[in-house]
Amino acid sequence: MIKFNPKSKETRHLLAEIVSWVSFPPLVATVFFIFLIFWYANDLSEGLRWIITIAPFLVFIPLVFFALGLKLGWISDIDLSKREERPAFLVVFISSLLVATILLYVLDVNQKFFVYALSGLVVTVATALITLFWKISYHTTVTTSVVTALAILGGLHFAWLFLFIIPVGWSRVALKKHTPWQVVGGAVVAFLLTYMVFSLFGYGV
Predict the structure, then answer these.
(1) Which residue of 96, 144, 178, 183 could cross-link 169, Cys pair, CB 3.0 to 4.6 Å?
(2) Which residues make Cβ contacts (< 8 Å) with residue 130, sequence separation at least 6?
């Protein structure tokens, strides 16, 4: 049994594991996406219609591919720790995200919601290209993208949420999944691209 001692290696590892799981990129992105759906939908039925329309592309297709990859050995672990395993999954995820973004446009959702989806697509494509050569952190990428979007959409009083990026980055380094620069790189790329896409549509802070 692990005793809670902040200075012990076992406790730090456990805390890092918890933070890493809570900030698991697909979980964070999906929860925030659903939150935005019901934030911008006119009523419950419209929100459910949006979810039913895009869920197969945003959730089910990437999830099924990921599960098959784990089962058949294409993917070694849930973190996609080996950089060479990432491209195949990213191609599937980017294709699905592109379809979901197009569907949101066709559904004529609130423009701010569409811009968030578009920014997510841009960030994912950019980091997918980077990960071909350098194992950038998707935990800090997704967390930073979500927090940046929230600060733009909800106002600067949400800016304090940027502090959450610190423990997320620490957890990835503590677990030896990334170097400090890979963690910082994910955060910087996500912030700049998310802000840029929103600014192009006139929503910069």
Answers:
(1) 183
(2) 136, 185, 189
